[in-house]
């Protein structure tokens, strides 16, 4: 089974950077700009891991992740927060809220790769 990574990020530059990093690590991926689109995408595709921005237009990444973790069909999907400085000091609260891991932006290739290997089922 291929690991499909879903990138949820509203900033086009950040989204592009994440897409490049994920692609370079050898994983197929899908990109969306809002949490609402993320939920729609999950109805259409099998997703192995979600990279979730926190600050999003509409539903924010924290609320979206709590919702994903409450739903039977999506609760098993690892969700990794891609955070900016706005979450400084709230890291443990984010993990308690349901995120499986946190990555600070700008995301480094090395850390992203570690997270992808840890949370996706296939070996790359
Ligand atoms: Mg954002």
From TrEMBL:
It comes from the Bacteria. GO terms for biological process: phosphorelay signal transduction system. InterPro entries: CheY-like_superfamily, Sig_transdc_resp-reg_receiver. Gene3D superfamilies: 3.40.50.2300. Residues 4-120 form the Response regulatory domain. Keywords: Phosphoprotein, Two-component regulatory system. The modification 4-aspartylphosphate is found at residue 53. This is CheY-like chemotaxis protein. It comes from Sinobacterium caligoides. The lineage of its organism: Bacteria, Pseudomonadati, Pseudomonadota, Gammaproteobacteria, Cellvibrionales.
